[in-house]
């Protein structure tokens, strides 16, 4: 079997969820959209079932996968429904649903449902992606309140720049949300992962942590926190070939890397078709047999090259960690000009192994 694999540490996931819950001073929906950011939504939801206040996914299809796997906790659809015909399934499976657009409001008002639906009414407080404007928000809430098709309403918004400590936009969005909802008696939902870490003054009844559950850290931990997030995924493979090259020899496509000294090169069975970023440059950290070293040259579809010159134990069969306990996914993402979210979501083809709870 090809040795490329993703080890998923479900105990670390539970640890991170509990940490997120402590930070949020309310309830926390574990965001498991996009197959739990590439970790396997069903396995992650099962691992969190006795801890979590509920789950959030992008769409009905993702929620139905969880329900089919026996997940009975509340599940929120973060993009709501895409067509009117989904509404009946949403109530049939006891799902909660974001409403963000006028056409959805009309569908809800005109539907004849077997049961009323639990809604999360989204405000566009400044991200300008989806949601009702602060000006129209109260009127939409009143129409939903008056509808027999609505069981409950949570007031929600989403922050665009909570990972930027020097931006004022988070406070501006939060104040916009608070003043546009003033006096409405309903639970609120504002915080994503970076808000939980970086903005202790921004809190709500329901938080929606995603990336921190998986152990990546979009901003520094709050001052005074001794607890750490633990990486959930370790992406690893093995050295399948060695080359001892003199100075001046090219390695890989495009001869992007040329040895500047006698170099032992290890070829690793993992490439961009497995989700490793093709744009990771020479120098991106990897760990071989537990020792840090670096990527060399261009990443290929199925293979990549690493520097083994200073790693005396390295041989064919040596384990190579691309990210995980030793190599921070956040650092790999920064080197490749992207974010951990994208790296995690892109993992595919590798063999998944779950370390049980
Ligand atoms: C994905 C998502 C989240 C989770 O964001 P993180 O940065 O991963 O914590 C929260 N809220 C909404 C609306 C989302 O779409």
Give a verbal description of the structure.
This protein has helices at 10-24, 33-38, 41-48, 60-68, 86-92, 102-110, 134-146, 169-180, 193-198, 329-335, 340-346, and strands at residues 5-9, 27-31, 54-57, 75-77, 96-99, 117-123, 150-157, 188-189, 206-207, 233-245, 250-251, 257-258, 263-268, 285-288, 291-296, 304-307, 319-323, 351-355. The chain has 357 residues and is an alpha/beta fold. The chain folds into two domains: 10-214, Alanine racemase (TIM Barrel, Alpha-Beta Barrel); 233-355, Lyase, Ornithine Decarboxylase, Chain A, domain 1 (Beta Barrel), CATH 2.40.37.10. An eight-stranded parallel beta sheet has the order 8-7-6-5-4-3-2-9. A six-stranded antiparallel beta barrel has the order 10-13-16-15-14-17. Strands 11-12 form a two-stranded antiparallel ribbon. Helix 1 (10-24) crosses helix 3. It is elongated and about 75 Å long. The two termini are 26 Å apart. The model has no long low-confidence stretch (mean pLDDT 97). It binds pyridoxal-5'-phosphate. Pyridoxal-5'-phosphate (PLP) binds next to loops.
